[in-house]
Amino acid sequence: MNLSLEQKRVLWQDRFGISLADDQIGVALAGNPNVGKSTIFNALTGLHQHTGNWPGKTVDNAQGGFQYEQRSFLLVDLPGTYSLLAHTVEEQIARDFLCFAYPDVTVVVLDATCLERNLNLALQVFEITPKVIVCLNLMDEAQKKRLMIDVPSLERELGVPVVATAARQGVGLTELKEKIVQVASGSLQTKPRQIVYSSEVEKAVKHLLPMVGSIANNALSPRWLALRMLDGDSSFLESLSRYLDVNPSREGLRCAQ
Amino acid sequence: MCAMTSTKTLSEIWSEAEDVRRSYPHSFSDQIVADIYGNVEEITKQVLSKKGSKRYNFDQRLDDIVTSKWFGYPLMLLLLVIVFWITMAGANVPSRLLATGFFAFQDQLTLWFQWIGAPTWVHGILVLGVYRTLAWVIAVMLPPMAIFFPLFTLLEDSGYLPRIAFNLDHIFKKAKACGKQSLTMCMGFGCNAAGVTACRIIDSPRERLIAILTNNFVPCNGRFPTLIVISTIFIGGVFVPYGGLVNALVITVLILLGIAATLLVSWLLSLTILKGEPSSLVLELPSYRRPQIGAVIYRSIIDRTLFVLRRAVIITAPAGAIIWILGNLHIGQQSILSTLGLVLNPFGQLFGLDGFIVMAFILGLAANEIVLPILLMSYLSTGYIQDFASLEGLRTILVSNGWTWLTAVNMMLFTLFHWPCSTTLLTTYKETGSKKWVLISFLIPTLTGLTLCFILTQGVRLLGLV
Lengths: 257, 466
Fold this sequence. Notes:
heterodimer, A: alpha/beta, 2 domains, 7-stranded mixed β-sheet, 10 helices, disordered C terminus, B: mainly alpha, two-stranded antiparallel ribbon, 74% helix, 2% strand, disordered N terminus
């Protein structure tokens, strides 16, 4: 969705309690718990951090600014989650931010020592936003466990840039910043791999797609919306009406202004 | 952007989706999760290879056994039995040595009190009250704790405890509760108040309440020694030389009974006052680690054993003095203690207990650690002064006060199922913020225990087995 800078600034302030400066590029940092997300956050932002709570929740929220190549960024540390299917408050916060705050870039931090479990979250993020970078952290630990990850072919499989890091040793962080700049400016195009569901799910999605298309009104991927309808996730219905000003019993999308 | 193009409202689409969901025989959300993992697996296969790492394979293989359908539960039971067996077999000798030492010193103390010409009541309160009770508490409780806690910490440190939670998750789902409840129960083995606080890890308020209300069904530190001692005296003693093993089995059965009660009550609560469906959880299984012996010893001895012992001693010392005074102050023919015991006796007899046992449990509201010491003090202060330098002596005291195997079993059942201690009740109030839930957390285990003891006692008496 194309929001003006001013609209976005107001949206972040009002809905998420985060002040985004005019010239700042908003970057979301997602990942499973215990993957070194905070290490990366600290390494990138240094002392320029603000901490608090997510509005109305008892979950910590940290944001921090950093500069790279004369651009300034605001990094938002999302709660550590295993998925975005909103079984917990943390998952709900992370999902709502990715869906309704439209960050310019999203970095998904993965634990290289348990890639399989971590990719689950990455693929779910891919369904929401195309501007994603995968940060493959704890590469040093993976090496110790003798796990070999073919990074170029992972990049091909995923369709987004993959940066291998060992954040505790400071390895790979410059490349990560480089990629963030490139994806934000659009000089590096991403085409994240989309999940292929089994035929029953795909059929049901196809059935719902024409209906949800108008509700989403290009603010959200209709496919993703249809999938959540199939999940029967009523918390998402609530978020939808809260963030998009959709009245459940009224037609279509009301204008935000 | 200000479009009004849609033909259906959100709630209409929602109900349409509901129809689609209903028409599908399985759960769409489960299928979606399964499909995501299918995709993930495909990608992982392409990019990941292992250079035959020993450690990684070791973890994997161990987990295949430890969390497998067939070996998971038997292994859990076996470990439980082994831990209890080592505890009880190992605690016997040091217990006896400590008791002998302490009571030899008591005679010295008595001589010394006589030598300085102290009044009889001072000697009574300090030596027969405070000192003797403390000696019992330490001799009876210290050895089993000093063996049990390091073993338990060892299991915890090696990474086995999360696997227990993983194994049990399935059953808890069936009881419509949260799998994390098994972790809060593990905390409860240490201390029920800590277990209640640990329930914060459960996200759904409904499941959290269930976990809080049922936490008392696992015996805490303070109750373990009572169970172990009673079992050793009355059950293990009968099956010499296999006493240790039989004891371990008895304690294991009791623990299983507690777990069964937890599941049953959780399920009943889910059906009645706390209706709802279970939520999913993700449990991270940390890799197995070689336990750090230093840390294990420090944590189990300092943090647990000495902590519990200190708590027991602090509450027992004044309690010992008070019990001695009550036992030696007379109203008419009888001491106050005997009067209290007699008043409570008919109630106790109904459940196969006696008046002193009921009184000990009531006073034990302050801390479960002091139930057994108070009970012994009560028996001893009413005139049955025996030579008791061993568990055999303890048995004589109890038997001479009318204990049978039925009393012992009821005592163990009631130790497992009775009201939570005051600290746990207070914590429950803090966590739930409601007196109603505190009352319910008091009533559930109490009624369970009374019912079980009543049925067992009346049944056994009816059949004429005792």
